[in-house]
Amino acid sequence: MLKLGVNIDHVSTLRQARYATMLDSPNAEPDIVAAALAARTGGADSITMHVRGDRRHVQEEDVSRVKKACDLPINFEMASTAEMLEIALRLGPDFVCLVPENRQEITTEGGLDVAGQQESLRATVTTLRRGGGMVSMFIDPDEEQIRASAEIEADMIELHTGCFANLVGEDHVDEIERLVDGARLGHELGLQVNAGHGINYRNIGELFKVPHLLELNIGHSIVSRAITTGLEQAVREMAEAMQGYPGEA
Ligand code: PXP
């Protein structure tokens, strides 16, 4: 069965629109812990949070509060920097997903260049694995990046579905092919294959063409729907939409 990781960064984005500092105060709305628990009740299999270098949404304290209150695995997204490595080792998330980070970007815009920085990423992976968590690489569905991820002994890859979500026509069809080929290669190389970015209630069914996926990380579309339906219901509807995934096909 395809698992659902719910990314709750945008819950913090809304809170930080008011520059909250006391995160456990009733004025720090919306409450990230309540959001994680609602996602859990709606059927989330894990909770994803990204502490960015500029702290624009999730704060380190959010991760520790959610970890304490919610028994779902935490998928901690981070850039491969000394500061984030230290935070990850302190927080002890179940999974870490290494992502590229650029101050100007609105969201994570491209995959990590694993092939171009193998030695430094290998060191990060080794340290994180010693800390006990499984490590994922957020990469484009590109053969060189997938092979490099296996080479540095990552446990998982998360295939970037942003292009799949944004392209139309022939380009969209080609991108699905790239995801299919990427998932097959990752699986052959012994990597757990996840996917994320830009997945929504309309395009989810098309991802069923991509084999070997184990977990999808979805944030923006779920949190957006939650404004009208509530988060628990929005998560439940996405979990339902993910049922029937054929897996190996
Ligand atoms: N996976 C990764 C690595 C991401 O950086 C993000 C965005 O924070 C997501 C998944 C979720 O993307 P979206 O919010 O578009 O569903």
Summarize the structure.
The chain has about 250 residues and is α/β, with parallel strands linked by helices.
Keyphrases for this structure?
TIM Barrel; eight-stranded parallel beta barrel; 8 strands; 10 helices; binds pyridoxine-5'-phosphate; single chain; alpha/beta; globular
Rounded radius of gyration (Å): 17 Å
Hey, roughly how much beta strand do the residues contain?
Answer: 15-25%
Strand order, main sheet: write it out: 1-2-3-4-5-6-7-8
- Proportion in helices: 40-55%
What ligand molecules are bound, each kind once?
A: pyridoxine-5'-phosphate
Descriptive account of the structure:
The chain is α/β, with parallel strands linked by helices and 249 residues long. It has a single domain, classed as Alpha-Beta Barrel (TIM Barrel), CATH 3.20.20. It contains ten helices and eight strands. The protein has an eight-stranded parallel barrel with strand order 1-2-3-4-5-6-7-8, surrounded by eight helices. Helix 2 packs across helix 3 and helix 2 runs parallel beside helix 10. It starts with a strand and ends in an 8-residue tail after the last helix. Pyridoxine-5'-phosphate (PXP) binds next to strand 8 and helix 9.
